[in-house]
Amino acid sequence: MIMLAVENLTVHYGVIQALKGISFEVHEGEIFTLLGSNGAGKTTTLKALSGLIPKTSGRVLFGGRDITSVPSHALPGQGLVHVPEGRRIFAGLSVADNLLLGAYHRRDKAGIKEDLEAVFELFPRLAERRKQDAGSLSGGEQQMLAMGRGLMGRPKLLLLDEPSMGLAPILVEEIFAFIKEINRRGTTILLVEQNAQMALAISHKACVLETGSIALTGTAREVASDGRIQEIYLGVG
Description:
Layout: E1 2-13, E2 16-27, E3 31-35, H1 42-49, E4 57-62, E5 65-66, E6 80-83, H2 95-101, H3 109-122, H4 124-128, H5 139-151, E7 157-161, H6 169-184, E8 188-192, H7 196-202, E9 205-210, E10 213-219, H8 220-225, H9 227-232
Helix pairs in contact: 2-5
């Protein structure tokens, strides 16, 4: 089943065309990765999908429904949740309060409590620090918190923007293990990631953006084996 269909999506920043009519599909249960160098349009794509920036033209279908013009604050209630680049946690609030903010659109108190415990079970270090200010966490723990906050919205589709950015290699492996586990538990993931090798290792499908256009789409294995990708992104050749 197609969960997300992006059709001829175009985005401008003033006179600059950041996305040039891109189209791709994400199927239910997948980890789908967007690869590309800085400025290729990866973060712009996620921001456009989640309504954070306006679309010039094109259409976005989510679960078969047209969400092209749905405002960003309404999308989590429909099952689309965006974990932004740079974590964007609330440093002065506790870990628990940060997580609860991820459920702002929900009214099912019992379900929220249940999901909070599920997040603490998935991320034990957050459970240990639930009363600490989020600003006191390490970079890796803050990324876990940002992902946990996203999960509190009960997403059908989780948009993850550069979750490994700025983390030590051992923490990068841990974060990717969490992403794989979140997917295993039933959440579809659209991942933007600079670490192509790690991303392709856990993804089902991928596409490569180059200056606002899609240069290549295929299974993760097909993309990883493409000669240009090996040379540019994987350091091979």
